[in-house]
From TrEMBL:
It catalyses: 1-dodecanoylglycerol + H2O = dodecanoate + glycerol + H(+); Hydrolyzes glycerol monoesters of long-chain fatty acids. Lipase that preferentially hydrolysis medium-chain saturated monoacylglycerols including 2-arachidonoylglycerol. Through 2-arachidonoylglycerol degradation may regulate endocannabinoid signaling pathways. Also has a lysophosphatidyl lipase activity with a preference for lysophosphatidylglycerol among other lysophospholipids. Also able to degrade bis(monoacylglycero)phosphate (BMP) and constitutes the major enzyme for BMP catabolism. Its main location: membrane. It comes from Triplophysa tibetana. It is found in: Late endosome membrane; Lysosome membrane; Mitochondrion membrane. One of its GO terms (cellular component) is late endosome membrane. Belongs to the AB hydrolase superfamily. It holds the Pfam family Abhydrolase_1. GO terms for molecular function: monoacylglycerol lipase activity. It is a single-pass type II membrane protein. Gene3D superfamilies: alpha/beta hydrolase. This is acylglycerol lipase. One of its GO terms (biological process) is acylglycerol catabolic process.
Amino acid sequence: MDRDMVNLFAIAAGTLAIPLLLFMASFLLWPSSLIKVYYWYWRRTLGMHVRYADCGGYRFSYSCRGKPGLRPSILMLHDFSAHKDTWLQMVKYLPKHLHLLCVDMPGHEGTTRTDTDDYSIQSQVTRIRQFVEAIRLNRKPFHLVGISMGGTVAGVYAACYPSDLCSMTLICPAGLKNQNKSKFDIQMDDVEQSQYTLNIPLIPSSPEEMEEMLKLCSHVRFRVPEQILQGLVDVRIPHNDFYHELFMEMMGERSKYALHDHIQQITTPLQIIWGKQDQVVDASGAASLKEALPGSRVDLLDNCGHSVVMERPRQTAKLIFDFIISQQGTENASAKKTS
């Protein structure tokens, strides 16, 4: 083999080796950066674009895809200590023609966080309404989706601003007086008795605690490498003081049962999705909602925990889309009868 050919192979090998070495270095030394790149890649792949909305000195960060069309726009509200990219796995299975918006909840990720802000459920509802009005989303009734804490906010939003919505999906929402205690409720009894000297299970500060949180939130057991666990912790640690403040507010008198306190005011067509093996918010909450709102549709998912969007993204997307279509069909049928 002549020298030119040897040089060519050496250059090719070097070219391939550099990205691999960079990946390995990121994985071993900066796993949190790798996680951020991962979300950036999936947003780009799925056609989601990050945008900002300003109103009165307050900035909302959100990702979106598509434009308003014949189907209702869909606004998604994430869980406690999560972010707008939480929904990406489910977005993958929603039709591309839908207008989708995933907003960072108040104080989370790219949305404004201040020391003077009130993070009670009612105040979060007020902030989300500001976002909706800032981007003029309520020019036409839209479909609202919320999971866990985001589900509480969505339910109270529906009670306060029913004309904004055509329908709503609540995924294992918090804020209810459930019939049965979950594993998390029992853990929190111990934390409260210790006067909060024990760590709160949903606010991990080490890879071991992160692994325990994932086990608590997911019935499906995901094998997560230790370096990725470390990266997930590294991303969260700078925000843990805020998460602790927010969590204490969620457990306080004003917010703990906010959804329960507003149930009777909800008139929006409602879909309830819940993992049967939810260890954070017990699935008996679905029966409580159904009893209070008999016209609701309930979908209980087998072999699924609290992280419904992560564990059953395809099924959840299909259930939501089917519900939206069914509600449009009901509206069209009612319009024909009255005409």
